[in-house]
Amino acid sequence: MYFLFYLVLGFVLLFLNNDVSKAVITLMNIIVVLTPLIGTIFGVMYFFNSREFTELLLAQPLRRRTIFIGQYLGVSISLSLSLVIGLGIPFVFYGLFQSASIFNFLSLLMVGAFLTFIFVGLSFNIALANENKIKGFGYAILMWLFFAIVYDGIFLISLVMFQDYPLDKFSLGASMFNPIDLSRIMILLKLDISALLGYTGAVFQKFFGTNFGMFISILVLSLWVILPAWGIIAQAKRKDF
Amino acid sequence: MIEIKDLHKSFGKVKVLSNLDLSIRKGGIFAVLGPNGSGKTTLIKSILGMVVPDKGSIRIDGQEVLNKFEYRNEIDYLPQIARFPGNLSVKELIKMINELRSKPSKSDELVKAFGLVKALDQKLGHLSGGTKQKVNLVLTFMFDSPLVILDEPTTGLDPISLIYLKDLIRQEKNNGKTILITSHIMSFVEEVSDEIVFLLDGKIYFKGSVANLKKETGQKDLEHAIATIIVDEHI
User: Fold this and answer.
1) Please, which pLDDT band fits residue A199 given cuts at 50, 70 and 90?
2) A38: domain range?
3) Per-residue pLDDT at A121 exceeds 90
4) Which of B150, B139, B175 is CA-nearest to residue B28?
5) Could you report the predicted ipTM of this complex, rounded to two decimals?
6) How is chain B split into domains, by residue range?
7) Element (H, E) at B213
8) Is pLDDT at A196 greater than 60 in this prediction?
9) Which residues of B touch A62 (CB under 8 A)?
């Protein structure tokens, strides 16, 4: 289903825009919000749904870490593959390989995959911490809402409130703590239109320059993947079933 | 075989096991009895490593088992409630568990004995409670492990399967295995078990043979003997 959705989305965008790089920008806006949402929902649902199965596996001679990291990778990889293949097919048909935007497109897919891993990991952590399904689901959705929408709001308000102070470092730091913002900035840097993003993007580019900025972003995104995965292992070790 | 020392476990504010010591020798059938909520399942799950104890040690054959996983290769476990992933068929599930343990398995023989041949291609989600319990039993008994743990094995079984289960338990005992059973059905316990461990409020109140328990409490049958312990302790 997820795969088909991206397939259709890819085709529609391309034929509406008639230009690969414009389609990439539209896609970015969708990917940056949607992949975290899908990752969150699928992660929580999968975890709660497979609880019986998990209990069955726990009585077998398997390491706890193996069981939970296996489930985490299973969900993340299959979602990422749907994204990459679903969007990849229409773009390949459209003649992506002759187009100059191929690297932009690839970085977009990479960011999508990163976001999927991050949010599946975070939602697994939430699911592990909450025995109650409704509560776990609620917290997971709230988490997504926070990163996708509320965070930006707080960020903007604080920029307005403290506009008399130099805010470069603050805004840099603040965007590091939100994987969605970070991904957005990263793609915009890649597209070399960071001025479009306004303040944060401009600061980011000024500070790091495009290449170094990319490097830092990828590093922080990787941290965002590693920390939740580590959290899954730590929580799984202590949990009673 | 199993050595448990000073085991503590609480869930939130509820103390389920406190300062529990238990040793179970090799070979024979041991029944863990106790009223609801006395900590039977928690005790069993601690042995299996599914529940992480707050304090204490559990040794199986002299090996500390907390935070280990390899030792579970030598344990067959029957969970209390048969819950399986509904989207798998019986055949797929049996195959998968077979692949997890690199051991010879006698699943085919057991599937026939429990009359599950027709159900092999059905999805687990569509099975009745009793049939699920039979699948559960097949998964438990298909490996040849020295320690067998059965949590409420009789739930939902029809009389024919129950007779077969009793035979199976006796057979396993004659093969020199250690079998740990929890059950609420006293006639079943009386029939199969060699020794009884009685748990109440997370402590062991009695450990010994059925005959001893009857003698100690002055009651003629096991049900009344157990009731006597509970009443005595709560007055």
Assistant:
1) low
2) 2-238
3) yes
4) B175
5) 0.79
6) 2-84+148-234
7) helix B210-217
8) no
9) 69, 72, 100
Please indicate whether residue A209 or residue A130 has the higher confidence score (pLDDT). Answer: A130
B216 vs chain A: nearest CA distance in angstroms?
37
Residues of chain B positioned with their CB less than 8 A from the CB of A57: 100
Tokens of A107: 């970085």
Q: Is there a contact between A58 and B50 if contact means CB atoms under 8 Å apart?
A: yes
Q: Determine the Cα–Cα distance for residues A13 and A27; give it in Å rounded to an integer.
A: 8
- Structural contact between residues A116 and A225, judged by C-beta atoms closer than 8 angstroms: no
Q: Is the pLDDT of residue A173 over 80?
A: no
Which among A41-45, A53-57, B108-112 has the top mean pLDDT? A41-45
Quick one: pLDDT at residue A138?
Answer: 92
| Maximum Cα interatomic distance, chain B, rounded to a whole number of Å | 54
Residue A98 confidence (pLDDT): 65
Q: Which of residues 28-57 of B touch A (CB under 8 A)?
A: 45, 48-52
Best mutation target, A48, A53, A237, to test chain B (most B CBs within 10 A): A53
At CA B132, angle to CA B131 and CA B138, rounded to 5? 90
pTM attached to this predicted model: 0.83
Task: Please check whether residue A233 is in contact with residue A65, taking contact to mean a CB–CB distance below 8 angstroms.
Answer: yes
Pick one of 3.40.50.300, 3.40.50.10490, 3.40.50.2300, 2.40.240.20 as the CATH number of B2-84+148-234. 3.40.50.300
B63-64 and B55-60: which strand pairing? Answer: antiparallel
Looking at the 3D structure of chain A, how many domains does it have? 1
